[in-house]
Amino acid sequence: MSWSIDHLPAVLSLIGRHVYLAGLPLLLGLLIAVPLGWLARRYRVLYPLLIAGTGLLYTIPSLALFILMPIFIGTRILDPVNVVVAMTIYTVALLVRTVADGLGAVPDSVNQAATAMGFGRVRRLFMVELPLAVPVISAGLRVAAVSNVSIVSVAAIIGVPQLGSLFTDGFRRNFMEPILVGVIACVLLALVFDLAIIAGTRLITPWQRTRRAA
């Protein structure tokens, strides 16, 4: 406990960096996955290509992807942008199928009713299909959030500071307390992300609360 108290400002700084490196890719990945998931659902010929193609991205080892990023985007090896881009790729890999399945779960009768009311394809997507698909997408987003918090810690091996730095520091000095602090902080951060997504989902889907109350 004494080490934790003495190094609290440093730990809080690492938490802030971890939130940035895990949270920003979550938002960017969702923005990219929504149109890709819609395309996969809208055009059947694209479904296997997009789902399998993005799914394969998740099989790339994270450490290798962090190291290879500078080759593709022209950054330095220690630039946090490498981690943001890599984590965005992983987020897209997890969410494209989720978005496609969520949109596919919207009843055809609902889509037909929206079309009959004069909704165009884009308007129907944003005002009917996506809102109804939110619970499914939210479930995938929760998985991606926890995954991001975990994978980001690997970037400490290449020198990008975040909570994973506590693991490498503790291992290098054979000192357990930084490792324990890092593990606990990662677990709590993943829990905060999860609760935030649940709260956001409930906020933008008030009809779900009404249905449960009924």
From TrEMBL:
Top-level taxonomic group: Bacteria
Compartment(s): Cell membrane; Membrane
Location, primary (coarse class): membrane
Listed transmembrane segments: 20-39, 46-71, 77-96, 132-159, 179-204
Entry's Gene Ontology cellular component terms: plasma membrane
InterPro entries for the chain: ABC_transp_perm/SBD, MetI-like, MetI-like_sf
GO biological process: glycine betaine transport; transmembrane transport
Any single Pfam family the record assigns to this protein: BPD_transp_1
Membrane topology: Multi-pass membrane protein
Sequence ranges assigned to domain ABC transmembrane type-1 in this UniProt record: 15-199
UniProt KW keywords: Membrane, Transmembrane, Transmembrane helix, Transport
Family: Belongs to the binding-protein-dependent transport system permease family.
Protein name: ABC transporter permease
Organism name: Nocardioides luteus
